[in-house]
Design goal:
68% of the residues lie in helices and 0% in strands. By secondary structure, it is mainly α. It comes from Coprococcus ammoniilyticus. Pfam families: HTH_3.
Length: 71
């Protein structure tokens, strides 16, 4: 699965809009939109926030898969 799909699926699992997901992890709506359209990817700080959000909400998500995709 491509990175953009992973982020979109994660957000949908959380039942959040792009705006609400962005607020939860401390980025802008346009940032989440760029991630989901494949125009950019989260930096490590954003990945850490996504990981922390998932752990706090018992959501199964392995951000390590996203990092490996770049390597």
């Amino acid at each position: 699965m491509k990175f953009a799909e992973e982020i979109r699926d994660l957000r949908r699992k959380c039942l959040l809009s792009q705006v609400d997901f962005a607020k939860e992890i401390g980025v802008s709506f346009s940032t989440v939109n760029r991630w989901e359209t494949g125009k950019s990817k989260p930096n490590y700080k954003a990945l850490k926030r996504i990981d922390e959000y998932c752990k706090a909400n018992s959501i199964d998500f392995a951000c390590s898969n996203l990092v490996q995709e770049d390597e």
